[in-house]
Amino acid sequence: MPEESEYYRIGELARRCRTSRRTIDYYTRLGLLHPIARTDGNYRLYGADAPARVARIRALQARRLSLREIAASLNGNGSDTVGDAIERFRLVARELDRLRGEVAEIQETITEARQKDGRSRILGDAARETLARARALVLLLASLMVDASIGVSG
Questions:
Q1: Half-sphere exposure of 10 (CA within 13 A, CB side)
Q2: Which of 23, 34, 120, 123 is exposed most, by the fewest CB atoms within 10 A?
Q3: Is 73 exposed, middle or buried (0-12, 13-18, 19+ CB in 10 A)?
Q4: For the segment 50-107, what is each residue's pLDDT rounded down to a tens digit?
Q5: In this structure, are residues 51 and 14 in contact, taking their beta carbons and an 8 Å threshold?
Q6: Total domain count for the chain?
């Protein structure tokens, strides 16, 4: 067995990753993390790469990937594939739909503010800035879709 310093026990790994022991245990049960050895007392030991793997899991969760998609990505069975790109486009489309609803709510707030007083200029400026960013995002997505269709057909 290699030196003890090359391993993390579950509590040490949790502290290093600023998460709970339960989270590390959960990731292990799902097969996202793999202990590489056990102590004489039967404690799981994780390798030196475990903190980076936990960070990768958390980054993928932040991208709203399911745990099954995360497992596929970590095991090299789903990362950077056309299917993954399509799913990410769908996630963006759902997020844009959600944002449309928020914009409608903001528009109501601006309308009410205009009726109450003249200080809605700041809200209007923020709305125009947000709209410009949203249009830029839509243009970027459109260009990606064109590039993808060119790559598939030609």
A1: 18
A2: 34
A3: buried
A4: 999 998 898 888 878 888 888 887 877 544 566 666 767 777 777 777 777 887 887 7
A5: no
A6: 2
**Taking 60 as the threshold, does the pLDDT of residue 149 lie above it?**
no
What is the rounded distance in angstroms from the CA atom of residue 96 to the CA atom of residue 10?
39
Backbone angles phi, psi at 32, to 5 degrees: -80, -30
Claim to verify: residue 106 and residue 142 sit in the same structural domain: yes
Amino acid (one-letter) located at 103: V
Share of the chain residues as helix, strand and coil, in percent rounded to the nearest 5: 70, 5, 25
d(CA 41, CA 10): 13
Residues 70 and 8 in one domain: yes
Pair 53, 91 in one domain: no
Q: Which domain holds residue 43?
A: 4-74
